[in-house]
């Protein structure tokens, strides 16, 4: 018999997720939440979602598991290619190579965005001249990002010359997968990070990608998240959001628009 998530149970989960990571789960996500959490109910042999809710309220490890299940989102290499072209053609050629170029993928998921950027940087700069940090609230996707192993079909949008240089085709038990070149991985630091707070420990960056995440926040939380992230951006550095997002409802006096969904920090 199917276990259904009631409206009141969904409201409780909405409040839990908002409190923990600031994501505003819309009513349209109820069935998605129901299906993603069902495996945990079956694992614990629970008959209702309220039993699972009681567990996550007292068990921090299971609360992390719940967050991981609900915050897993779609990603792929070179997503929104216009941004990577702007990075390659406008930012990288004008960077003064006196200091290490630092890039932050602030909602890194399984690492496709960070590794896409790494390929472009490594193609142009000495490996000692760049560094990438990727953060995500989801502990499981960070583990996958650190490994850098992906389904072969994910390589479809990687430019052919970059694919040849940085993607190792899997064999044997890894047939149908590809592995990111280990040289790139050495310049990457993937860690768990919560955008609801200032991540001072990651340092300052020349470029920050905060893409396909603001859509999950209400305006007040968007303001908090953007304010936190911009503390890590150098003056003169660039801030990217998704082509499907905007900053219309929040205050960003330190930014000026330089291209579609691309901003530069001016003070």
Write a structural description.
By secondary structure, the protein is α/β, with parallel strands linked by helices. It folds into two domains: 64 residues, Chemotaxis receptor methyltransferase CheR, N-terminal domain (Chemotaxis Receptor Methyltransferase Cher, domain 1, Orthogonal Bundle), CATH 1.10.155.10; 185 residues, Vaccinia Virus protein VP39 (Rossmann fold), CATH 3.40.50.150. It has ten helices and ten strands. Strand 9 and strand 10 form a beta hairpin. Helix 1 runs parallel beside helix 3. The termini are far apart. The mean pLDDT is 94.
What is the CATH architecture descriptor of the largest domain?
3-Layer(aba) Sandwich
In spatial order, strands of the major sheet run 6-2-1-7-8-10-9
Show unreliable segments: none
* CATH level 1 name of the largest domain: Alpha Beta
Q: Rough shape?
A: globular
Tell me the number of strands.
10
Cα Rg: 20 Å
Distance from first to last alpha carbon: 59 Å
Beta-strand percent range? 15-25%
Structural class: alpha/beta
Helical content band: 40-55%
Order of helices and strands: HHHHHEHEHEHEEHEEHEEE
Sheet of most strands:
7 strands, mixed
| CATH topological fold name of the largest domain | Rossmann fold
Number of helices: 10
By CATH, the superfamily of the largest domain comes out as Vaccinia Virus protein VP39
Give average pLDDT, whole number: 94
Number of domains: 2
TL;DR?
The protein is of the alpha/beta class.
Could you give the topology of this structure?
Blueprint: H1 7-21, H2 30-44, H3 49-58, H4 60-70, H5 81-91, E1 101-105, H6 112-124, E2 130-136, H7 139-147, E3 149-151, H8 160-166, E4 167-169, E5 177-180, H9 182-185, E6 188-192, E7 205-209, H10 219-230, E8 233-240, E9 255-259, E10 262-265
Parallel strand pairs: 1-2, 1-7, 2-6, 7-8
Antiparallel strand pairs: 3-5, 4-5, 8-10, 9-10
Helix pairs in contact: 1-3, 3-4
């Amino acid at each position: 018999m199917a276990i259904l998530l009631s409206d009141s149970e969904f409201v409780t989960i909405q409040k839990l997720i908002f409190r923990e990571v600031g994501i505003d789960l819309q009513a349209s996500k109820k069935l998605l939440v129901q299906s993603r959490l069902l495996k945990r109910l079956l694992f614990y042999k629970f008959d209702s979602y309220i039993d699972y809710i009681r567990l996550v309220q007292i068990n921090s490890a299971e609360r992390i598991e719940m967050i991981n299940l609900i915050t897993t989102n779609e990603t792929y290499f070179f997503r929104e290619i216009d941004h990577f072209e702007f990075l390659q053609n406008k930012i990288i050629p004008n960077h003064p190579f006196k200091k290490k170029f630092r890039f932050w993928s602030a909602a890194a998921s399984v690492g496709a965005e960070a590794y896409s950027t790494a390929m472009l940087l490594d193609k142009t700069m000495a490996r000692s001249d760049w560094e990438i940090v990727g953060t995500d609230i989801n502990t499981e996707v960070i583990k996958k990002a650190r490994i850098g192993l992906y389904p072969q079909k994910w390589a479809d949008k990687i430019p052919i010359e970059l694919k040849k240089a940085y993607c190792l085709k899997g064999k044997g038990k890894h047939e149908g997968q590809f592995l990111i070149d280990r040289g790139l991985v050495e310049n990457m630091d993937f860690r768990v990070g919560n955008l609801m707070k200032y991540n001072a420990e990651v340092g300052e960056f020349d470029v920050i990608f905060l893409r396909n995440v603001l859509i999950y926040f209400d305006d007040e939380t968007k303001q908090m998240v953007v304010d936190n992230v911009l503390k890590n951006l150098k003056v003169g550095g660039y801030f990217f959001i998704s082509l499907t997002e905007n900053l219309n409802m929040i205050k960003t006096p330190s930014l000026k628009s330089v291209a579609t969904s691309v901003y530069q920090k001016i003070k």
